[in-house]
Amino acid sequence: MSTPTIPDPGQLIISVLSSQWDAFWPDLLHELEEAYGPADTVTELFAFDQTAYYDAELGTPITRRLVGFTGLRPLDELADIKQFTNSLEVRQSAEGNRLFNLDPGFITLQSLVLATGKNFSHRIYLKAGIWADLTLIWQKKQWVDFPWTFPDYAGEEMKSRLTKLRQSYRNKLSKPQT
């Protein structure tokens, strides 16, 4: 018999995609910090050009930044976090088009799991229409992707940023939480 144990909390990250940063940034960062505490990582903008999936809605050129938060959070909050980020997207949309796309997820020592509202064969249902997507795993000191990993997350540019966030997370785990 397995004995259930509560896992370590995770490093919440939120990927932000947009082509219209001046319309909402840094106000969006402040809203996210009100909800999840101070950000300790806000990456510089970098290109999102691996797919044209969001071009019609978000405009072009789309760029991305990652936001990581100081405090660690229980992993079972992921669905609630996705519902909140969805509400931010809707609240700041115009004529059915979003200004930005928000993708929250958790980094742990073992993996990166993103939240999504879309089901697929490899996704696990959480609650309230939200699934967990096992996007990357950490193995042999590097991120390993899967056949279903989004191309932007499979690239080295993203993986190098995620490695820095994972190291920050690892450092936080070794310090007592206050």
TrEMBL record:
Source domain of life: Bacteria
InterPro entries: DUF4416
Protein name per Swiss-Prot or TrEMBL: GTP-binding protein
Species whose genome carries this gene: Pseudodesulfovibrio sediminis
